[in-house]
Design a protein that fits this description.
Blueprint (H helix, E strand, L loop, with lengths): L7 H10 L11 H11 L3 E7 L2 E8 L5 E7 L19 E3 L2 E3 L3 H21 L6 E7 L10 H10 L6 E4 L11 E3 L1 E2 L1 E10 L3 E2 L9 H14 L13 E9 L6 E2 L2 E10 L5 H13 L4 E10 L2 E2 L4 H14 L4 E3 L7 H4 L5 E4 L13 E3 H19 L1
Parallel strand pairs: 3-6, 3-7, 7-18, 8-17
Antiparallel strand pairs: 1-2, 2-6, 4-5, 5-19, 9-16, 10-14, 10-15, 11-13, 12-14
Helix pairs in contact: 1-3, 3-9, 7-9
The chain binds zinc ion (ZN).
Zinc ion (ZN) binds next to helix 3.
């Protein structure tokens, strides 16, 4: 086994893991990155919005602009006693590095920085510009992060042509899956009103559970779509149902529920909402339904970015990546609407958001080479 501990990208990764950047606290991570970028000639700007720290760094003024993007924040570790190692003490066991954020997504950040350093050492006069967009608000509300930075760039007429997000896209082996888009995410917050009553006198009450149950069954039976060439089928999931006042002899007066659609481009959020309201309105039910759209679906069409990423992965792994739109939302939903091609390429995601989150050190080293190769293919 090779010793990976002294590899620059692994050292940087461990430095970042040591900073407990629980969302939205950046815990000094971006300062470390900004110092390295400034040394390469990047103009670094910290864009602070409320408790969120963002970094926009750019080197060069011409087009095309290739941007690496990601987040320094991590999800909380939960009970630290459940961890085999301290969540914020990067620990090597064999060739594996344990720590919160090791996979999601401090490996991606470390690989970007070292990849940029290596590329610029060889090609300081490449064409176009390089940029880096980092937020500390991806795992939280995601209101004052990438979304706000994109607003600032729009006001300045600053355009990103290609964006590589370092999110952990890989499923079993590094580079086996590259994300080229994401499904939309639409949530419904439902209240069903009834009349509270004594459980023994149902005729004097109106139990909202009884009204909602058949409707829920119907929603579950609907085949929303079969997906399409680029997207998996739309999925409907109920995440919460509550009613009842905690007494065994009282039927509730109100029920609340929350559900979520991960939807393909076969729907828009408007057409989905219309369909759901039509299903509800066919039942005798007194309800209120509020919607929250957290992201429209987006898709990067075949072109220079997908070609470069595919080639970089194939060179390093010998396999062509699967181009997928599955998985959860990411900040790509805020970058893509600006007319930017967005691709996500990062380490294996099997342990993200779990105790004992980890990453393979060799993968981080290889990911650095992939990023470096993407720069060569797009900017030389
Ligand atoms: Zn992430």
């Amino acid at each position: 086994m090779t010793n990976t501990t002294s590899e620059p990208v692994v050292e940087l990764l461990c430095d970042l893991i040591r900073r407990p950047s629980i969302t939205p606290d950046d815990a000094g991570c971006q300062l470390v990155l900004a110092e390295r970028l400034a040394a390469l000639g990047f103009v670094c700007e910290t864009l602070q919005f409320n408790d969120v720290t963002n970094l926009w760094a750019r080197r060069g003024t011409s087009s095309p602009v290739l941007c690496f993007a990601g987040h320094t924040d991590v999800v909380p570790p939960g009970d630290e006693r459940d961890w085999s190692t301290g969540p914020f003490e990067p620990t090597h066991i064999g060739d594996v590095i344990f720590g919160r954020g090791s996979a999601d997504m401090k490996s991606g950040l470390a690989a970007m920085i070292v990849g940029l350093e290596r590329f610029l050492a060889e090609h300081p006069n490449h064409k176009g510009s390089l940029a880096v967009l980092i937020t500390s608000d991806e795992e939280g509300r995601a209101r004052d992060g990438t979304q706000r930075v994109m607003q600032v760039l729009k006001e300045r007429d600053e355009h990103i042509d290609w964006c590589v997000l370092g999110e952990p896209s890989s499923q079993h082996a590094l580079g086996d899956v590259v994300r080229i888009g994401r499904r939309g995410s639409l949530s419904g917050m439902l209240t069903v009103r009834g009349v509270q009553g004594h459980v023994a006198y149902p005729q004097q009450a109106d139990n909202p559970i009884r009204r909602f149950a058949p409707l829920l069954a119907e929603l579950h039976q609907i085949e929303w779509d079969d997906g399409n060439d680029a997207f998996p089928p739309t999925s409907f999931q109920v995440v919460d149902v509550r009613a009842g006042i905690g007494a065994p002899n009282v039927t509730p007066g109100e029920l609340s529920a929350r559900f979520n659609f991960r939807y393909s481009t076969e729907w828009t959020h408007e057409s989905l909402q219309e369909k759901v309201h039509a299903v509800f309105d066919a039942h005798e039910i007194d309800y209120e339904l509020n919607w929250h759209l957290s992201g429209k679906p987006f898709l990067t069409e075949p072109g220079a970015l997908i070609n470069a990423v595919t080639e970089a992965v194939t060179e390093q792994t010998g396999r062509a990546p699967e181009l997928s739109t599955g998985g959860g939302t990411s900040d790509g939903r805020f970058i893509s609407p600006a007319g930017t091609d967005v691709v996500e390429l990062g380490p294996v995601n099997a342990s993200i958001h779990k105790v004992d989150e980890h990453v393979n050190a060799e993968d981080v080293i290889t990911l650095t080479k992939m990023y470096q190769r993407i720069m060569q293919l797009l900017l030389l």
